[in-house]
Amino acid sequence: MERHNLTFVSEFYLMRFSADPDLQPVLFGLFLSMYLVTVLGNLLIILAVSSDSHLHTPMYFFLSNLSLTDICFTSSTVPKMILGISTQSRVISYGGCLTQMYLFVLFGCTDNVLLTVMAYDRFVAICHPLHYAMIMNPRLCVLLLLLSVFLSLLNSQAHNLIALQVTCFKDVEIANFFCFPSQLLDLSCSDTLTKNIVTYVFGILFGFFPMSGIIFSYYKIVSATLKIPSSEGRYKAFSTCGSHLSVVCLFYGTSLGTYLGSISSYSPSKGMVASVMYTLVTPMLNPFIYSLRNKDISSTIKRLHHW
């Protein structure tokens, strides 16, 4: 498409997975099924935690909120994609694009911070077991949750304020199936300095620091676990972290690894695959990881099934 400087933009065009009409029903069925599994699976985790008094602990409090965030995170992008496939429409309004970007950053960032909070919870449980109940009291748990949401709101609001300053666009074609922040800012006619500053500053604040917190927590956890004399005790300590560590690896492996690995040879198709991995596949697999690796969750889900 020939590029022009567009001062007044009322809509953008999202990228489609395939222009082949024969593939559209297959893509529609595939993504709709995955979306429904994601929503139902995470709702099941929330229902299990809320219905069983034995699961009313800090770890499961954060897990249920992570499941709720996953539902919202996936719902910020995937329904629009499914609707676009069914109607063969790639159009998204300017206001709809900013709203989608706002929600994507909000819930994606909340997901990230909650994983860090959950790593801290496991660190306290294993490294300071005698003081766990006193440290991870209900007041602190709620405070950490509110802090996660507040920081995410600041992040998403900052992205939208910067996007609102853009008054001229080089193009209206977004190289993804949703309004990804950096790709939207790439369309700006203005200098890319602001976009680069935003990318690096918020990447450090909400990428590097949370990941560093998780790494530090698990460094302390591994150090403390290796000092346990019995192999049974070490296995029990590691097993309490298994589900969370699996989710962390899946989240960062898909969101950071795929994108950073394709920077040198970026293509829209790679970006689309990466986006599907961490906006849909990861939230879909999280409930399976926790239900299969966690005996408390799996037993509660079985009881709910028998009801």
Task: Characterise the protein shown here.
There is one protein chain. This protein is an all-alpha fold and 307 residues long. It has one domain (11-306): Rhodopsin 7-helix transmembrane proteins (Rhopdopsin 7-helix transmembrane proteins). Helices cover 75% and strands 3% of the residues. The chain has helices at residues 24-51, 58-75, 78-87, 94-127, 132-135, 138-164, 181-186, 193-226, 231-261, 268-293, 295-306, and strands at residues 11-14, 91-93, 173-174. A three-stranded mixed sheet has the order 2-1-3. The longest helix is centred in the middle third of the chain and has 34 residues, at 94-127. The radius of gyration is 21 Å and the shape is globular. The relative contact order is 0.15. The mean pLDDT is 83.
